[in-house]
Amino acid sequence: MPIKIPDQLPATDVLRKENIFIMAESRASTQEIRPLKVLLLNLMPKKIETETQFLRLLSNSPLQVDIELLRIDDRPSKNTPEEHLNAFYRQFDMVQHRNFDGLIITGAPLGLVQFKDVAYWEHLQHIMTWAKDHVTSTLYVCWAAQAALKLLYNLPKQTRDEKLSGVYHHDIHQPFHPLLRGFDDTFLAPHSRYADFEADYLAQHTNLDLLATSEVAGVYLASTKDKRHVFVTGHPEYDAHTLHQEYIRDLAEGQQPPIPVNYYPNDNPDNKPRASWRSHGHLLFSNWLNYCVYQQTPYDLEHFSEDRFTKDD
User: Fold this and answer.
1) In 62, 78, 133, 268, which residue has its Cα 20 to 30 A from 179's Cα atom?
2) What pTM does this model have?
3) What residues does the record give for site: Important for acyl-CoA specificity (predicted)?
């Protein structure tokens, strides 16, 4: 089944060229089917690139998914045309009275910024709190995972001395957990962050299920018992060239970034990088849509009730 996106969204042509099954709004409106309603709160600067990456992962499911793009505020963007934002993105006040099956909150380049200094911190807290009563399952990616740990568990910001950048091996735990269905015992996933997610620290201060960890990168995947909050500390959505672009950007800004680990052939930035994480990235999002969203959400979203979820806090 396809994902449903606006007819003129730039991602439409990109995904069609990749033979990804998408459905324009004009065709979807003629089908008698209840698609999953998923919000994508895009906090990344290059919104067109990021939305395409996430839509690609959401497309790998037998479920029809109706995507709505959400922006955090109305401040002008330096990296995305305003006409694109006005055409395809909604403000929160346009959706806050509705219920949704799923919400994805992307990462943001705010690794060294204290939460209190983030311009939209209070608004983000408001959206995350709203989601508890209006969204079946929320997926927090990278920086958003750290922000959610602060909001849900009051954990202070944990920052590494040096940026974590590269593609790392991870081991799975609880192999029969729904989010890990079909996963190999070990798998690769990219990280690009200053945030620190040590397994022992999270085990001591939360009751999360720690599902996948790396000896170097720490916790990669975690979930609340009821699967209503899922934390992904890496970037399964990244394209093959994304880490390279970040590395070149940091060099151009006069920084001395570490060469992304296990990314370039022979660890040589002159060599073309190759993606080694796509299969598990697609599988993770497919599992989230199926087991955390579709299997849990009510058919009639107007009758959304938090009481039907197992309490774990």
Assistant:
1) 133
2) 0.88
3) 111
